[in-house]
Amino acid sequence: MTLMTIPNHSCLYCGSSGPFSDEHVISAGMGGDDNRFVLKNCVCRTCNTEIFSPLELEVLRSSPLAIGRIFMQPLGRKRGKSTNLPKLQAKSKAMISESGRPLDFEFGQNAKPILIPQLTMVGQSAFESNSDTGLELQEFVEVARRLFNEPIVLIRKLVGEVKSTFELARWVWADGEYVEAGEAEIAAKPPVGGIWFERMEQSGDEPSPYLARLFQTGTKSVGLRVACEMAPQAALIFFRKAIEQIDFSTTVESLITNPVVSVGMTISVGMMDRVMTKIGLNILAFVAGPDYLRHPAFDEIKKSVMTGRPELQMTPGDEAGQVKFIFDRVPAGHHVFFISGMYLPDGKYALGMTMKLYGSSGSFVKLGIDVPEPPVPMPIIFTADYTTHSVKQWSLIEFSKLLRDCWQEGSSLR
């Protein structure tokens, strides 16, 4: 198959004429936040912000890749002047207390479990307070007190296939109890200053580990989780009275040593396959030029990246030969992306990418069958240092020499 070289300034993925936004060749959140390796005027803003960004966010926070990321990657991508820790978005994260009660926590740097400020209803009339530090608990209680001194808006996220919406229920304090003010309404965006409401997930007929919990969310907002057998009104009344009674001068602190934690996640099938395939296509566009990726032979696989149909299939990488030799010697802290091509018996040219991510044994994605041969030397090799967000391209000879030196001297990639 011959390569068409007709200039085309359309979006690589949807074919629109823009407006365009910068697209990192390797996902910024997984170590590719290197402005030297960016596709400019190649990917439209709609594809970038409405399709790829949510897709990458889900993979980086709610997939097997996310587990390796929180343990091995010290920092996420830069946002202005700040840089945040990698996050794990899970349906449940529980640290077991000495009494056997599950407590909410978040992962800190290098996946250190950190208790978040929380008040838990114990039985019908008592509560327990927990936090990583006493100061954080006091600050959380002060925020909660201000919220309970005003009419309360309970915010419940409604997850949709395309976009999420938010159910808003307003409650006012009257005559010693909470009364719902009118019918709940649906909003496109959540208001500032409400309480995020969620029902506790239970397995079968197992009893709830607690009836209700008021806690600090990952965005420093206030959340309320309530068991199915308890009404939101009753939980609001209970916690209003609880925060009025808290006396920090009588607080007794205790430590949880060697905590046992559990994480429950919902993983969407096919998301990671799409993100990894997109990285491979981005690398091809960056090295071989955007017009190479605009060839009609890539249309079907780009459609799969955009929509998930036809399904893509990421498979375990080659466990023998040259790929294993390379991956076994990759220094810690680096992803490797190895794109190679070959002619099939029927004369068609096929492209694929083998990658090593967060110390894994390697995975493989197809990038095209019956596509034009790239107008650049093969294979194409990229590394991404996810500890420093530094990307580098290598020739096979350069990379082989460097890996040899790293293996013999114990040095790192530079």
Q: What topology does this entry show?
A:
Elements: E1 20-24, E2 38-44, H1 45-61, H2 64-72, E3 78-79, E4 82-83, E5 92-96, E6 102-107, E7 113-115, E8 118-122, E9 126-130, H3 134-148, E10 152-158, E11 165-174, E12 177-180, E13 185-187, E14 195-199, E15 212-216, E16 222-226, H4 232-245, E17 260-264, H5 271-288, H6 290-293, H7 299-307, E18 315-316, H8 321-327, E19 334-343, E20 349-356, E21 363-369, E22 380-385, E23 390-394, H9 396-409
Parallel strand pairs: 10-14, 14-16
Antiparallel strand pairs: 1-2, 3-4, 5-6, 5-17, 6-7, 8-9, 8-15, 10-11, 11-12, 11-13, 15-16, 18-21, 19-20, 19-22, 20-21, 22-23
Structural descriptors:
414 residues; alpha+beta; six-stranded antiparallel β-sheet; disordered N terminus
Give a structural overview.
With 414 residues, the chain is of the alpha+beta class. The chain has 2 domains: 202 residues, no CATH class; 173 residues, no CATH class. The protein has 9 helices and 23 strands. The strands form 5 sheets. Strands 8, 9, 10, 11, 12, 13, 14, 15 and 16 form a 9-stranded mixed beta sheet that branches. Strands 18-21-20-19-22-23 form a 6-stranded antiparallel beta sheet. Strands 7-6-5-17 form a 4-stranded antiparallel beta sheet, with no helix packed on it. The longest helix is centred in the last third of the chain and has 18 residues. It is elongated, with a radius of gyration of 26 Å.
